[in-house]
Design a protein that fits this description.
Blueprint lengths: L1 H7 L23 E2 L43 E2 H14 L3 H9 L8 H13 L3 H14 L4 H13 L3 H13 L5 H13 L3 H14 L4 H13 L3 H14 L4 H13 L3 H13 L5 H13 L3 H11 L7 H13 L3 H17 L6 H17 L3 H14 L4 H13 L3 H12 L5 H14 L3 H14 L3 H18 L2
Antiparallel strand pairs: 1-2
């Protein structure tokens, strides 16, 4: 959302629209005037900062009777302040930071809120967000109900990752009836970041009442619905958005995620394939597409998707490891081996990509690959290497136990399982493995005890059926 504020809210920041008004009392330089236009810059869809406002502030003779300004919502300026703002706007046409420096040299303590407001706009344009925040706050000290200063303060606080303050500022505009569609959309984004999906939904809906064709509000509403697990409603919104903007990558991703949440993998696959044919898929989307093809038992298609997903220098390590595990479970060692080679290259190029746990998991998967290829001695050697780095790697300990059990080395297998059973989260699995060794030894009563302990920790339907079978064997053994 913060990136979107810089890049996608071209309609968010508004000019004040203040009209000039002169009075005939006092020195001409000190007479109050409403500027023709304020130096508020607009957030462009194609630029990160605020675009330079080209309209210079100036004074013109007011021959007719001017309407009285909303004194509490908009500032008035003296002729001297208007001249300073005019000069600053001219400087900002080429250098916003220089325009801000020019205004900072003015006597801001004695000036009205308009100069602080303009200073905030020029700092915002130069992407000096902390300085912009202070300037807007100074304007609001002088004019607490200054609507545009509050709106822009909310925007800059959003960019500074201050959601609580952003929400408070924008909610004050809503309470005063001064919130437009752009403010409501930004408030929705803020509430969504704060985890208040229902409140965010209401903000987006209010924005849509004011501007029915508002892609940002519709997108935000879609995300709020997805967070609330109202996936069918979200799909309807995505369909509406895609009808007007079919080349927006995020829409295809949201559509696929909604289908997955509804347990509709085929529709999710179709959505991601459409995105791929439109050349809109990023690495994450290609990885999900690979998962879907792997689940459909189409390993070649899955491998092609994974190769695209994992081609970038910033390899998503966790996803790549999961893909390797999926191929190994599907008995596809060649595809698994290719991804493991990619992981090895990535680790050589950038070791910082891998956490300690991920490095150990990559080694273990290499052992699993060797085991699947029938090279048990290499697998055992690799597992041993992994355990030297992390002696409490329960998955590797269980894999070592399985190798020992397959080789008939039951005592060594039990030792590995016992070590794994001491690792939190793996007790049930390790106890079940120990029970299998006791079944091989025809020690059925001991196996029953182990399986009952495993079920007490983590009840599994398959394990329950196995337990019943072992109990019958134990009963037969007792009757002999």
């Amino acid at each position: 959302h913060r990136a979107a504020l810089r890049a996608m809210h071209g309609k968010d920041v508004q000019d004040s629209g203040m009209k000039q008004e002169t009075r005939n009392s006092g020195d001409a330089d000190e007479s109050r005037a409403r500027p023709v236009a304020s130096p508020v810059s607009r957030l462009s869809r194609r630029t990160r900062g605020l675009a330079v406002l080209a309209v210079a502030l100036g004074l013109a003779a007011n021959t007719g009777r001017a309407a009285q300004p909303a004194r509490d919502l908009e500032p008035v300026v003296t002729l001297r302040e208007a001249a300073a703002l005019n000069d600053a706007a001219a400087i900002a046409a080429t250098n916003a930071a220089a325009a801000a420096a020019f205004l900072e040299k003015q006597d801001l303590a004695k000036a009205g809120a308009a100069l602080d407001f303009a200073l905030g706009n020029f700092h915002f344009q130069a992407e000096h967000y902390a300085a912009a925040e202070k300037a807007y706050e100074a304007a609001l000290v002088k004019l607490p109900k200054f609507r545009l200063a509050r709106a822009n303060l909310g925007r800059v606080c959003f960019l500074l990752d201050k959601p609580d303050k952003t929400a408070k500022v924008l909610q004050s505009l809503v309470e005063d009836g001064q919130a437009d569609s752009a403010v409501l959309v930004l408030l929705g984004h803020t509430l969504l970041l704060m985890g208040h999906a229902l409140s965010a939904e209401n903000a987006y809906r209010q924005a849509l009442l004011l501007t029915p064709v508002n892609p940002d509000a519709l997108m935000g509403l879609c995300k709020a619905l997805l967070i609330q697990e109202r996936h069918r409603e979200a799909l309807a919104l995505v369909k509406e958005l895609l009808s007007t903007d079919s080349r927006r990558r995020e829409l295809w991703s949201l559509r696929a995620n909604a289908h997955l949440a509804l347990d509709q993998p085929e529709q999710a696959l179709v959505s991601l394939e459409c995105a791929r044919r439109l050349n809109l898929t990023g690495p994450d989307m290609m990885a999900v597409l690979g998962d879907l093809y792997l689940n459909r038992q189409q390993p070649d298609d899955a491998s092609a998707c994974y190769q695209r997903a994992f081609a970038s220098a910033n390899l998503p390590v966790a996803r790549a490891l999961r893909a390797v595990e999926g191929f190994l479970m599907a008995n596809e060692p060649d595809h698994a081996g290719r991804i493991l080679l990619r992981l090895a290259d990535a680790r050589t190029a950038n070791p910082e990509l891998f956490s300690r746990e991920q490095r150990g998991e990559a080694v273990r998967l290499r052992g699993d690959l060797a085991r699947l290829q029938g090279d048990r001695s290499s697998a055992l050697e690799i597992y041993t290497q992994a355990l030297q780095d992390n002696p409490l790697d329960a998955r590797t300990l269980i894999a070592v136990g399985d190798l020992r059990r397959e080789a008939g080395e039951l005592e060594k297998a039990v030792m590995a399982y016992e070590r794994a059973a001491r690792v939190p989260g793996f007790e049930a699995r390790a106890l079940a493995r120990q029970a299998q060794v006791d079944v091989q030894r025809e020690r059925y009563r001991q196996a029953v005890e182990l399986l009952e302990r495993a079920q007490a920790l983590d009840e599994q339907p398959n394990a329950r059926r196995y337990l019943e079978q072992v109990r019958r064997l134990a009963a037969i053994e007792s009757n002999r």
